[in-house]
Amino acid sequence: MKAGPGAHGHDPKSTRPVIKRATKHLGEVRLIGGLWKRSKLPVADRPGLRPTPDRVRETLFNWLGQDLTGWRVLDAFAGSGALGFEAASRGATEVQLLERDGVLVDSLLAVKLRLAAAAISVLRVDALSWMPRAPADRFELVFVDPPFDAGLAPAAATAAGRLVVPGGYLYVESDVLLPAPPAGHTLFRQFKAGAVHAQLWQRELAT
Question: How many domains does the chain have?
Answer without folding.
Answer: 1
